[in-house]
TrEMBL record:
Pfam families: UBA_7 (PF22562). It comes from Callosobruchus maculatus. PROSITE patterns: UBA (PS50030), ZINC_FINGER_C2H2_1 (PS00028), ZINC_FINGER_C2H2_2 (PS50157). Residues 244-253 have a biased composition (Basic residues). This is Uncharacterized protein.
């Protein structure tokens, strides 16, 4: 910066105006510049707007990537990302995920087992609306899945309980049936025994009668005691008279 500009600024002119005056007059003389400023006061505001603003000190170090920059960031706003080398996030070198805080990194490391992390100048962008929706949909799907699983589990458990109930009911029925069967068998057995005893009793009575009969025979000396004919024997049917007639002997032959 020239000393003329400094002097003019000290005199109360704006730095911008002083620089314009020096440029316009091309002189190192404070007096000349001052004269010019005083005579051009009205035009100065217009002139000031014409003069391009001082170029910001551009980062010379990044000039090597000039071709890259041209390719990737044609818009002037994109240069903001690379202007600062400050680490804005952490990157997992194993899967490429970005994390805003050390806590997130630690959480990811524990969860995934990934162990290689590096600082990144890339800023982790907040989720876009679409990404938020997607994330929400994922969470909802997960919740839905979990609910379905729980319902299925509950259904299965209920079914199992019902099965057990039915089974125990069936077992009870079965036990009852077996008991009835057993009782029926016992009854049958008892009846069979009763019949057997009855049969034996009858036989004993018959034997007794028989013995009595023999005893009476022996007492009365062969006199047949009149016995009631329970089954009267029917006499054999008489042969038809024709068959009785003797055959006539025929000598002729
Ligand atoms: Zn990872």
């Amino acid at each position: 910066m020239s000393s003329v500009v400094n002097t003019l600024v000290e005199m109360g002119f704006s730095k911008q105006h002083a620089e314009i005056a020096v440029k316009k007059t091309g002189s190192n003389d404070v007096q000349v510049a001052m004269d010019w400023l005083l005579s051009h006061e009205e035009q100065l505001d217009n002139l000031a707007s014409e003069v391009p603003p001082e170029p910001a000190p551009s980062d010379e170090t990044e000039k090597t990537d000039a071709t890259d920059l041209k390719e990737h960031s044609p818009s002037p706003t994109a240069s903001q990302d690379s202007s600062s080398a400050e680490a804005k996030s952490f990157r997992c070198d194993d899967c490429g995920k970005l994390f805003r805080t050390q806590d997130e990194v630690e959480f990811h490391a524990v969860k995934s087992g990934h162990g290689n992390f590096s600082e990144s100048t890339e800023e982790k962008k907040p989720l876009s609306e679409e990404e938020k929706k997607e994330q929400l949909a994922k969470i909802e799907a997960k919740l839905r899945q979990r609910r379905l699983e729980r319902e299925a589990r509950e259904k299965e458990e209920a079914l199992m309980r019902e099965k057990i109930r039915i089974k125990s009911g069936k077992e009870l029925q079965e036990a009852k049936r077996r008991q009835e069967e057993l009782e029926m068998k016992k009854l049958m057995e008892q009846k069979r025994k009763e019949k057997e005893e009855e049969k034996l009793a009858k036989q004993r009575i018959r034997e007794k009668i028989e013995q009595d009969k023999i005893a009476r025979k022996a007492k009365f000396g062969g006199v047949a005691t009149p016995e009631p004919a329970t089954t009267p024997a029917s006499p054999p049917p008489a042969p038809p008279p024709g068959l009785r007639r003797p055959r006539p002997a025929s000598r002729s032959g």
